[in-house]
């Protein structure tokens, strides 16, 4: 396409948006509502993926050491555990430290079990190179000397990942449905504007204008609709995400989990919403033109 022709199509599409006033506003509204919901869903899904990844990387094996095991025996056990190919790191947690964790989680009444009355075990906290290796490491640890038991968050993690998978699946499905609805609404809104201009299209065809020459202004009009319709969702999602990030980051500060940082993440979401808006606007316009360009 020549530059002068493209410029003509661009100018014509802008004039058409202005000329069709309320119809253009209706199309903008359809895109705005859809992209707002899509932006919120994408923010939730991407942060769920981030936290799921953090949790997956935090899955560990807790090797409970037999009570009465000497320091020499503990050192030998640690060496055996470190010798496993799947083990990335080992951290020792004394029974006193374990009791402090219990008191911090469940209340001061558990302080009664301090000193010689402490029923807990010393623990080796083992992290694997890959979360999928935790089950195998736990089984091997249980068979070692001076090990009372070996536990891992496998059951809880599997349940969590199942929930995360459900959120991802439903979120993706709803997003696709919303995009389909947006294409349908834009297509029908622009179709109404085309109906009011069918005489203009007929005249253009009579004078020999090609389908491409007729179609391009409408496709660009749909793209403008998607672009302008993305502005409000971008503003709302950006402000809302920064606010939510500030609140939840404070709550997650004491854990190893975190939300995606607003900077790069919001830039990606904004660019994606603009791209989606332009694409669904152009597709909606293209679909609405097919009937009028049939010979």
TrEMBL record:
Part of the ABC transporter FtsEX involved in asymmetric cellular division facilitating the initiation of sporulation. One of its GO terms (cellular component) is plasma membrane. NCBIfam families: FtsX_Gpos. This is Cell division protein FtsX. Residues 59-148 form the FtsX extracellular domain. It is found in: Cell membrane. Its main location: membrane. The lineage of its organism: Bacteria, Bacillati, Bacillota, Bacilli, Lactobacillales. The chain crosses the membrane at residues 21-46, 174-195, 216-244, 264-287. Belongs to the ABC-4 integral membrane protein family. FtsX subfamily.
């Amino acid at each position: 396409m020549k530059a002068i022709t493209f410029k003509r199509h661009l100018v014509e599409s802008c004039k058409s948006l202005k000329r069709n006033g309320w119809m253009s506003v209706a199309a903008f509204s359809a895109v705005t509502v859809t992209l707002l919901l899509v932006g919120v869903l994408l923010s939730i899904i991407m942060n769920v993926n981030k936290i799921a990844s953090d949790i997956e990387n935090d899955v560990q094996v807790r090797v409970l050491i037999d009570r009465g095991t000497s320091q020499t025996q503990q050192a030998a056990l640690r060496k055996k555990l470190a010798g496993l190919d799947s083990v990335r790191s080992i951290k020792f947690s004394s029974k006193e430290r374990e009791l402090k964790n219990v008191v911090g989680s469940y209340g001061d009444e558990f302080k009664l079990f301090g000193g010689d009355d402490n029923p807990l075990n010393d623990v080796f906290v083992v992290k694997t190179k890959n979360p999928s290796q935790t089950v195998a490491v736990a089984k091997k640890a249980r068979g070692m000397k001076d090990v009372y038991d070996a536990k891992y968050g496998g059951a809880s993690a599997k349940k969590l990942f199942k929930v995360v998978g459900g959120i991802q699946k439903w979120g993706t499905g709803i997003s696709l449905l919303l995009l389909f609805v947006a294409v349908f609404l834009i297509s029908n809104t622009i179709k109404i504007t085309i109906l009011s201009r069918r005489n203009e299209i007929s005249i253009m065809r009579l004078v020999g204008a090609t389908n491409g020459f007729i179609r391009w202004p409408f496709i660009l009009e749909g793209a403008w609709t998607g672009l302008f319709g993305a502005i409000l969702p971008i503003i709302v999602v950006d402000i809302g995400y920064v606010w939510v990030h500030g609140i939840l980051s404070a709550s997650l500060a004491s854990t190893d989990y975190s939300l995606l940082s607003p900077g790069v993440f919001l830039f990606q979401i904004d660019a994606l919403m603009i791209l989606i808006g332009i694409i669904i606007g152009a597709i909606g316009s293209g679909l609405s033109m097919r009937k009028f360009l049939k010979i």
